[in-house]
């Protein structure tokens, strides 16, 4: 089952803020550089790579010397607007070291419900991939909470990354978090929790085992990752949830090593 992962031609990688920012609030340059190296190498191998990156608020807080995440949504939007530009600047620099062009794409999750917008997004992403450019996608935090009848929720790139997989018919979503995978219980509160290596179906019992976010920079927590996995399985695609501490782990995942949690139907 795992040895088929290397056949994935089009891969979406989602990285959480906790992999981009150290717990003390400073930017994890080594991690970002390793991510740029790894994704560029995958592209050089002939794969099509799309990055969904969180981090705008964390990087914005760093830039504005905030030690606490602001509580009001408009303050968070403002910090995200500052941080998004900085985030892209850092990515642009690191990817350029390896000769790789990147592009910023800001989306809202409800784009999938509007046929014309949806087609525009697909056209842009397909064209970027044809041009050998790695799209770096984030939720458009300025728009996402403005439109009250929309279903968007602030800061949830887990769902967005699964939607991007759906829109681009990608073969694999690699979700990099601050935890080794999905456990039988939240490992930060239960030391006995055990890691699932392979999940073929998302049952209500599994959802009950998923808790909230792990750090002040965390986003949706495990529940949101399982919801994303459900969408991926609905597309007959696969998802691996793994630790993003060392993004080179992506090479090992694609090589079929038993790393993180694989969500994939068991085709007999
Ligand atoms: P990210 O920044 O990568 O989006 P989150 O903080 O949103 O990360 O989610 C990861 C966190 O979810 C973990 O650090 C862990 O504390 C928490 N968590 C809750 N339940 C589980 C579980 N069953 N298995 C693994 N992690 C869990």
Automatic annotation (TrEMBL):
- The top EC class is transferase
Q: Name all Aspartate/glutamate/uridylate kinase domain ranges.
A: 9-236
The subcellular location is: Cytoplasm
* Keywords assigned by UniProt, alphabetized: Amino-acid biosynthesis, ATP-binding, Cytoplasm, Kinase, Nucleotide-binding, Proline biosynthesis, Transferase
PROSITE patterns assigned: GLUTAMATE_5_KINASE (PS00902)
Q: For ATP, which residues are the binding ones?
A: 14, 177-178, 219-225
Pfam families according to UniProt:
AA_kinase (PF00696)
Per UniProt, substrate binds at 54, 141, 157
Task: Report the Gene3D superfamilies cross-referenced here.
Answer: Acetylglutamate kinase-like (3.40.1160.10)
Give me the reactions it catalyses: L-glutamate + ATP = L-glutamyl 5-phosphate + ADP
Q: What protein family does this chain belong to?
A: Belongs to the glutamate 5-kinase family.
The name of this protein is Glutamate 5-kinase
**Its encoding gene is what?**
proB
């Amino acid at each position: 089952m795992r040895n088929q992962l290397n056949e994935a031609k089009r891969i979406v990688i989602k990285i959480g803020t906790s992999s981009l920012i150290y717990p003390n609030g400073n930017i994890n340059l080594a991690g970002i550089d390793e991510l740029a190296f790894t994704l560029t190498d995958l592209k050089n191998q002939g794969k099509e790579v799309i990055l969904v990156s969180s981090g705008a608020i964390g990087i914005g807080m760093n830039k504005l010397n905030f030690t606490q995440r602001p509580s009001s949504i408009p303050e968070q939007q403002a910090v995200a607007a500052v941080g998004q530009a900085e985030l892209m600047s850092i990515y642009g620099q690191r990817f350029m070291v390896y000769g790789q062009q990147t592009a910023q794409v800001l989306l809202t999750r409800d784009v999938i419900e509007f046929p014309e917008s949806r087609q525009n997004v697909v056209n842009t992403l397909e064209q970027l991939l044809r041009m050998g450019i790695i799209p770096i996608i984030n939720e458009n935090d300025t728009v996402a909470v403005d439109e009250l009848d929309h279903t968007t929720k602030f800061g949830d790139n887990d769902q967005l990354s699964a939607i991007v997989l759906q829109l681009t018919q990608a073969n694999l979503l690699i979700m990099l978090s601050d935890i080794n995978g999905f456990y039988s219980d939240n490992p930060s509160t239960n030391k006995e929790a055990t890691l699932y290596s392979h999940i073929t179906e998302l049952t209500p019992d599994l959802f009950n085992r998923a808790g909230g976010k792990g750090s002040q920079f965390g986003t949706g927590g495990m529940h949101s990752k399982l919801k994303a996995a459900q969408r991926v399985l609905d597309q007959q695609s696969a998802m691996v949830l793994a630790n993003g501490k060392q993004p080179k782990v992506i090479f090992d995942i694609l090589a079929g090593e038993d790393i993180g949690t694989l969500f994939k139907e068991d085709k007999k």
